[in-house]
Amino acid sequence: MKYIVSIGKSAARTSFVLCMILVVASCGSSRKAVKEGEGEGAVSGITTGKADKLTRTTVAKIASNRPSTTGITAKAKVNLGSLSASGTLKMRRDEIIQCSLSALLGLMEVGRLELTPEYFFYQDRINHEYVKAQWAGVPQLRDAGINFYTFQALFWEELFVPGQQEEPTASDFETTKNGNQLEVHPKTSGNAQYAIAVKFLVEAASGLIQQTSVKPSVASALHLNWTYTDWTKVDGKSFPSDMTMSASSQADKNEIRFRLSNVQADSKLKVEPSPLPGSNYSHINITRLFRRLQ
């Protein structure tokens, strides 16, 4: 499979906007892993708890699709409008998500996005700039409950509850059925400061999440739709290989499509955190990045 990308403004814009939309266009949850078997009706790390039968069945079915591996690697093609870049995606559960974008058929890295529970890091090799910041140290992210676990849930196609610290259970959700589709909603955001409406659209037969939407109550805030349209087998389970992230506000709308290939489970995967760039790079703050998209 060939991926074509031009070096210069197009490559820089692709990698930059990828970073920005990922960082600012989500509202998420902080989740701590629980040991399998804890709680009532534990299934693949998600407990079903006390809930109505439809919700218990739905949450259990969603959990049954979850690969047991702690590490995943994939080749990635990232599209932003007419721009296209190839790269790699490496994820180790509860530790790191690392996305590298390249040019010249993968011979030259043009940008890298790295998310860990402690910080997010972005390196723009075209403009020789980088950002590294702790989640709690950025009010725009902290006040919206955005952190590493937000993106982990979205990339791994999982349920989450905004602002909730613990692994979600069926008792955290309510479910309604509409034909062959189920709508799953968190009962509460977990904290009054997170005025966010979250909805998961789930295929009833398979338990696959088809779309996750996040809608903050503030009209000027960014709204997020993360859609899944294709799956591959990873560790004997279904894993999303085609994901589209749409982020919109009153003035703008951006859409990024991730198409993954050669998706592999690797429980022994080790992903080394990126070192800080050298003195030829400029460290810029998150406020400056936000202003570039305004």
Question: Which helices and strands appear, and what pairs or packs with what?
Answer:
Blueprint: H1 9-24, E1 42-43, E2 46-47, H2 53-64, E3 71-80, E4 83-92, E5 96-103, E6 108-115, E7 119-124, E8 129-134, H3 139-142, H4 148-155, E9 173-178, E10 181-186, E11 196-203, E12 209-216, E13 223-234, E14 237-248, E15 253-265, E16 282-283, H5 286-292
Parallel strand pairs: 8-16
Antiparallel strand pairs: 1-2, 3-4, 3-15, 4-5, 5-6, 6-7, 7-8, 9-10, 10-11, 11-12, 12-13, 13-14, 14-15
What's this model, at a glance?
By secondary structure, the chain is α+β, with helices and mostly antiparallel strands.
Describe this entry's structure for a reader.
The chain has 294 residues and is of the alpha+beta class. It has a single domain (9-292), classed as Lipoprotein localisation LolA/LolB/LppX (outer membrane lipoprotein receptor (LolB), chain A, Clam). It contains five helices and 16 strands. The protein has helices at residues 9-24, 53-64, 139-142, 148-155, 286-292, and strands at residues 42-43, 46-47, 71-80, 83-92, 96-103, 108-115, 119-124, 129-134, 173-178, 181-186, 196-203, 209-216, 223-234, 237-248, 253-265, 282-283. The strands form two sheets. A 14-stranded mixed beta sheet has the order 9-10-11-12-13-14-15-3-4-5-6-7-8-16, with helices on one face. The protein has a two-stranded antiparallel ribbon with strand order 1-2. The relative contact order is 0.21.
CATH homologous superfamily - what is it? Answer: Lipoprotein localisation LolA/LolB/LppX
Helix/strand/pairing category:
alpha+beta
Which series of helices and strands comes N to C?
A: HEEHEEEEEEHHEEEEEEEEH
Instruction: Tell me how many strands there are.
Output: 16
Look at the structure and give the mean pLDDT.
Answer: 78
